[in-house]
UniProtKB/TrEMBL annotation:
UniProt domain Prolyl 4-hydroxylase alpha subunit Fe(2+) 2OG dioxygenase: residue ranges: 132-223
Protein's name in the database: 2OG-Fe(II) oxygenase
Amino acid sequence: MEHPDFIEVYENALDLVTCTNIIRQFQTSERVQRGRTGGGVDLELKDSWDMSISNAPEWSSTTVMLNQIALRCLRLYLRKFAHAIVAPLHFKTPNPATGALQLVRAEELATTDESFLTTLAVKAFRPGDINLQKYESDVGGYPYWHCELYPKRDDHGETLHRVLLWTLYLNDSFTEGETEFLYQSRKIRPKAGSLLIAPTAFTHTHRGNRPKGGDKYIATSWILFRRAEQLYEAQPASAR
């Protein structure tokens, strides 16, 4: 039996014209600044030019569109790897015949209808901030082996809520520049319009290799668990 590596790539997630338009808008934005890691700006670890777009009014339509694309690909991911949602959380749904609550089983998610899967995904997860990033040709990159799940001061545990990472490649007019996963011994070659999804923990330690012969542009974010206050809403005292 072949063991999965939990790294999935969804080609043609975004059309090439829209990819190009995002790059052009990025190139003219005054919001672009030096890329940061969890510890701040350190060009030895990461050499990039970044911009967070999630709270920028001029990027609102792009943010909505990219989150919709990520959700569409997330549904495909959950159909293949259902335990990403049913292992940590115990969802129950009414039995159609009896009305009694029953657990949602992993094997059901492969064939369940889109609306139910979407409802389940939105109940469990929320989108992270979207970052646009530019890695300059022959200079930029994120060569440090890193993962996306770690404690961070003063962010209320947000980085510890990350479940999956996603990266949408906006161009491929360069060589190398792969997203390389350490333990899976796998390099993902950027292809414009393709979206990558992978787990955030140390098991999927990765790095961004330096592009050669052209600048590399990506959009990237995370799928996070909803906070416990939302997942486990307090019941009225009379119902306890």
